[in-house]
Design a protein that fits this description.
The chain is of the alpha/beta class and about 500 residues long. It contains 15 helices and 11 strands.
Length: about 500
């Protein structure tokens, strides 16, 4: 069976459980798929074929012993800022080109405990700073639906790998939209959980008050299974929520008749492509036909400030987090200077890419004496306003529905010289990220042959309700696990 890579994770689990094929055969199929399409997609920075086959053999032993979980033997892609013991972890940067961690992140520990099989570390914008996966020291990732287009970012490698069949599910990270936006552009499902739902232990930091790990998958059921696996309290992360995580799979196959859904006016602005607007309107009508009560009169007036808030807070946190990369302890180190200071300057100048340098300078400026109150402190105050507006909205609505991205995938190179245009790609995902809320993107059709994503936003720790609505929509829409023909060998 050479096309096992086409299966969803839950279909593959059933096949493994019923002994239709083995985990080694499933992994071989995915590895062959990677070999066939990776030269055109570039979804991975590092592939781990030998490790994957070893883990697959262990998974087969678990099935034989009756000790398998829904993720046992399932080939998974892991974003390359998630620390993996003994496996190179670069964060998409030259400065960590040869970094091999001595420990595992919490989320990878959870995947291994479940028996998942890691087939590689996926490509990403350097230190998760980007919306197109073009800001990678290891080359741009291409969109499987059209290889002239970007896959979104910064988790573009994970999204492209899932869409192209180079893994069945993947982990990404979302700071301002880095799971949801590439999920939308690659036609897969992706979730940014509530801040604190998933441990950040072992995640290479970008913006510590924003970063959150989450799943990408070909359907909502697999997404729920992945989030069930990686969620939960971890005492090694002081921001990890201590309350028990509900079994999200229990929210599958539930009716959404009577669910109150708010549609914020501020998300339907000039600059949204007409094809995207049409697909979102059709999706709202479908939700109405399913019994949802749609209210288009919701206003979140501080939404327009979310972009400015994010690009003050996130770079400020990045400037502090990336100060550790000085060439002294680990990573790339320039050693030919006449002084320690010259070596440090050359290490950072040569090791970081242009976008990372831009954000470090933005953040350092915002935190500097004389500007802290005017920029960073004011951004934090507006962040509180955004949070309160969402809080008020959820007193009236179960969920909010918006577009995920104002456009479909755009051509490689089209926005590299215009940072502001690139930043605007996350205009619909930034507000909920700034507020720390959970949100999910699911496919809702195409425009010009490229996928469009529909975003559901929920209240704090309401991932179950998001899974319920997204799964019901997915079943009614009827296009789960739709693979792009363009990625076929």
């Amino acid at each position: 069976m050479t096309d096992l890579w086409k299966l969803t994770a839950h279909e593959a689990h059933e096949g493994l459980r019923s002994k239709q094929f083995t985990a080694v055969e499933l992994t071989d199929s995915v590895l062959a798929r990677i070999e066939a399409v990776e030269p055109r997609i570039n979804a991975y920075i590092t592939t781990t074929a030998d490790l994957a086959l070893q883990q697959a053999r262990e998974a087969d032993e678990k099935y034989a012993a009756g000790a398998a979980t829904p993720l046992t033997g399932i080939p998974v892609g892991v974003k390359d800022l998630i620390v993996t013991k003994g496996v190179r972890t670069t964060a998409g940067s030259k400065i960590l080109e040869n970094f091999v961690p001595p420990y595992d992140s919490h989320v990878y520990e959870q995947l291994r405990r479940a028996g998942a099989v890691m087939v590689g570390k996926t490509n990403m914008d350097e230190f998760a700073m980007g919306s197109s996966t073009e800001h990678s020291a290891y080359g741009a990732t291409r969109n499987p639906w059209n290889q002239e287009m970007v896959p979104g970012g910064s988790s573009g490698g994970s999204a492209a790998a899932v869409a192209a069949g180079e893994c069945l599910v993947a982990l990404g990270s979302d700071t301002g939209g880095s799971i949801r936006q590439p999920a939308a552009l690659c036609g897969v499902a992706g979730m940014d959980p509530t801040y604190g739902r998933v441990s950040r232990f072992g995640i290479i930091a970008f913006g510590s008050s924003l970063d959150q790990v989450g799943p990408l998958a070909r359907d909502v059921e697999d997404m729920a299974t992945m989030l069930d696996c990686i969620s939960g309290h971890d005492p090694r992360d002081s921001t990890s929520n201590p309350e028990p995580t509900p079994d999200l799979r229990h929210y599958l196959d539930r009716d959404i008749n009577g669910m109150r859904i708010g549609v914020p006016r501020e998300y339907f602005i000039a600059g949204m492509e007409q094809g995207v607007a049409d697909r979102i309107e059709e999706s709202l009508k479908l939700l109405e036909s399913m019994g949802c009560v749609i209210d288009r009169d919701l206003s979140l007036p501080s939404t327009e400030h979310a972009l400015a808030v994010y690009y003050l807070i996130a770079p400020s946190e990045a400037s502090a987090n990336l100060a550790r990369y000085d060439g002294v302890k680990y990573g790339y180190s320039y050693r030919e200077g006449e002084s320690m200071w010259e070596n440090m300057e050359q290490t950072r100048g040569r090791g970081f890419g242009a976008e990372v340098k831009r954000r470090i300078m933005l953040g350092t400026y915002a935190l500097s004496a004389g500007y802290y109150d005017a920029y960073y402190l004011k951004a934090q105050k507006v962040r509180t306003l955004i949070h309160r507006e969402f809080e008020d909205a959820f007193k009236r609505y179960d969920l909010l529905v918006t577009p995920t991205s104002p456009t479909v995938a755009f051509p490689v190179g089209a926005k590299l010289d215009d940072p502001y245009a690139m930043y605007l790609n996350d205009i619909y995902t930034l507000p909920s990220a700034v507020a720390g809320l959970p949100a999910v993107s699911v496919p809702c059709g195409e425009s010009d042959g490229l996928p469009v994503g529909l975003q559901f936003i929920g209240d704090f720790f309401q991932e179950g309700k998001l899974i319920q609505a997204a799964h019901a929509f997915e079943r009614a829409f009827g296009q789960a696990n739709r693979l792009p023909e363009v990625a076929a060998p």
